[in-house]
Design brief:
Elements (H helix, E strand, L loop, with lengths): L13 E9 L1 H4 L10 E7 L1 E2 L2 E2 L12 H8 L1 H4 L1 H7 L5 E8 L5 E3 L3 H8 L6 E8 L4 E6 L5 H10 L6 E5 L5 E4 L5 E3 L3 E8 L5 E4 L15 H7 L19 E7 L2 E8 L2 E5 L7 E14 L2 E6 L3 E4 L5 E15 L1
Antiparallel strand pairs: 1-2, 2-5, 3-4, 5-12, 6-13, 7-10, 7-12, 8-9, 8-11, 14-15, 15-20, 16-20, 17-18, 17-19, 17-20
Length: 325
């Protein structure tokens, strides 16, 4: 492999212990966490201070930030490099909710830039596994205005106006900025989002940490950013097709498709002008590009540089989330 050529990249997961985390990232996705409450595996990250480190090939040990600073548009594509410079625009995660996550929302680009000098946070979820009767919270179950919302926040009855949605593996949700939401206990999912770690927490089930402290809430910020339009278009309807891509989410921040393969398939990236990320959400596959051959298994993520225009996927049964901009 030419030491100056880019190749398909695989990074060391960054594991995050959370008050609500569990053991599925280890038991089901083989992340081998050291703690007992690992809630998140950051698969690809350029968040400040949390830069992913490469674990394969001649650039092993280099960070995503270093690669992007060196290879620029060859890594991310010309239009992405013009738009984002040396900041990688997406944060890729697997999340295990042993307990309910806090009820929260994220600001859009305008508020995030003004208040935090950051990108906003639009994201999507693909449910990888869910316990029986597991659910998520998305939006409200009725028309809500700021006055009614603030009354329920003050009375700690906000859960009475939230919409609960039962989930099974394969369910997909588009969580746009401003949408109130929470991942429910028993849900393991893949999350694709803008590179932003800004969350406005509005309710945390009155739980405390080991020292008896409540986690911080962000009511004023949330009130400015929240979407009170009771949109119900957050669940993605799709009909998967074998050995070709199925559209899931197409928004200005990312495009995500499902690629379900049960044979050998050539996948072209020639029209993308973008890096392409693959997350394995079921099964396993061999991936080939030129002389490079690798395997991707359930719970793994790879980054295909924009300079690679085609890959071969070989599998008896795999489901991959394909993401690019």
């Amino acid at each position: 492999m030419n030491k100056d050529s880019l190749y398909i990249l695989k990074f060391q997961p960054i594991l995050k212990e959370k008050i609500w985390g569990g053991s599925k990232l280890n038991n089901l996705l083989d992340k081998d966490p050291k703690g007992s409450s690992i809630g998140e595996s950051w698969e690809i990250s350029d968040v400040e201070g949390e830069h992913s480190v490469l674990i394969n090939g001649v650039f092993k040990g280099k960070t995503l930030k270093e690669l992007l600073s060196t290879y620029k548009e060859k890594l991310v594509g010309e239009k992405n490099f013009r738009r984002f410079g040396t900041k990688f625009p997406l944060l890729i995660k697997f999340i295990d909710a042993k307990e309910d996550l806090s009820v929260q929302l994220h600001p859009g680009d305008e508020i995030a830039k003004r208040k935090h000098n950051s990108l906003g946070k639009t994201e999507m979820w693909y449910v990888t596994q869910a316990d029986q009767n597991a659910n998520i919270i998305v939006g409200f179950n009725q028309n809500v205005n700021p006055e009614l919302y603030q009354k329920h926040v003050a009375n700690k009855t906000i859960k009475d106006i939230l919409h609960y949605e039962s989930v099974v593996a394969g369910d997909t949700f588009f969580v746009y900025s401003g949408l109130i939401h929470a991942i429910g206990k028993g849900v393991l999912l893949a999350e694709i989002q803008q590179t932003s770690d800004i969350t406005y927490r509005v309710y945390d089930w009155d739980r405390t940490d080991a020292e008896g402290n409540y986690r911080e809430l962000h009511q004023e910020d949330a009130l400015e950013a929240i979407d009170f339009n009771n949109n119900t278009d957050y669940k993605v309807s799709y009909h998967p097709k074998k050995n070709q891509t199925t559209d899931l989410v197409n928004c200005p921040h990312f495009i995500t498709n499902l690629l379900e393969v049960d044979k050998e398939v050539l996948v072209s990236h020639s029209t993308f002008d973008s890096f392409v990320i693959y997350m394995c959400v079921e099964g396993e596959a061999k991936i080939e590009s030129g002389e490079q051959k690798m395997t991707i298994t359930l719970g793994e993520t790879i980054l295909v540089p924009a300079s690679i225009k085609e890959i071969k996927v070989i599998s008896g049964g795999v489901k991959l989330l394909q993401t690019y901009i």
